[in-house]
Write a structure and sequence with these properties.
This protein has a 3-stranded antiparallel beta sheet, covered by helices on one side. The chain is built from 1 helix and 3 strands. Helix content is 31%, strand content 21%. It has one domain: Double Stranded RNA Binding Domain (2-Layer Sandwich). By secondary structure, it is an alpha+beta fold. The protein is flat and about 40 Å long. The longest helix has 21 residues.
Length: 68
């Protein structure tokens, strides 16, 4: 199992989340709901790739926190 970066951002109606490595998006009313939705979306996407015989991309995005 791989760990993929997920970016979570607040919105006017809750939160949005996306995984740059996979191009998967999810939304939710709370941060917790959004995390649950993106986990489900990633699992669904990876299963679909496997069923189609496509390669599952390895995590490639790197992050760094920069103090300003």
């Amino acid at each position: 199992m791989s760990d993929y970066l997920v970016i979570i951002e607040p919105s006017d109606t809750g939160f949005g989340a996306w995984s740059p490595d996979l191009g998967v998006y999810a939304t939710g009313e709370t941060r917790e709901a959004t995390v649950a939705q993106i986990r489900e979306a990633i699992a669904f996407h990876i299963e679909g790739l496997r069923q189609a015989g496509d390669a599952v991309p390895a995590p490639a995005v790197d992050t760094v926190l920069v103090a300003a």
